[in-house]
Structures are given as structure tokens and as C-alpha cells.
Amino acid sequence: QVQPVETGGGLVQAGGSLRLSCAASGRTFGNYCMGWFRQPPGKEREFVAAISRGGAATVSADSVKDRFTISRDNAKNTMYLQMNSLKPEDTANYYCAATSNLDRANWRIPHFYEYWGRGTQVTVSS
Length: 126
Hints:
Layout: E1 3-7, E2 10-13, E3 18-25, E4 33-39, E5 46-51, E6 58-60, E7 68-73, E8 78-83, E9 92-99, E10 115-116, E11 120-125
């Protein structure tokens, strides 16, 4: 079992950068694939990026693929999302989540994640 906690959100101008962190309590962090999701105001939660247990495999949404980078440090029980070239449409509450599902095809689907953080707000001004 893990309990994710997101940090690093804030207000940034368009074109700027932010790095989100997701620290997970528990000694089994490395047993879980991890993902980032976001929920823009008034919209459904959407997939951003996910990473395998060891960090060798990642998948990203097309909308962020060339701008956001997901990574993890299992020794620190922490996952990261480096966000560059931010746009106003990236404004959302960002959530990290953990899944024991190893099928990469399922990483984009919130239903397959067992543990969720409470989110951190990212606001990008134009």
C-alpha cells in the first residue's frame, strides 16, 4: 500500500516551467507503476503520463509529449513531472496515482489506479 502526496504546483506564466513531485509513503513504492492525471476546471479527469515500476518505460498523452517528462527515484519513493513550455490549457489540478496493473495499455485509464493523492493546483496565466 502507498499513499501519494503531490507538491510543486503553483502559478506560472505561459512558456514557463514547473516540476511536480509525488512522494509516496510505504516501503512498496517500487512495486507500483505510477501515473499523473489532471482535471481542468469543469472537465473530466484526463491522463497525462505514466511510468513503469523501474522507470524504464513511460507513456504520455499526445498533448504533453514534447513538453512534459515523467521520472521516478525509487530510492526516494518519489515520482516527478517536469513541465516545460506551459500553456494556459495546462491549467488543472494535477493528481498522482499508483497502480499494480503492469499492462501499459491500462495506464491511461483512471479506473486501474488503486491509490490517489489529493492533487496540486497548476495555474498557467497567458
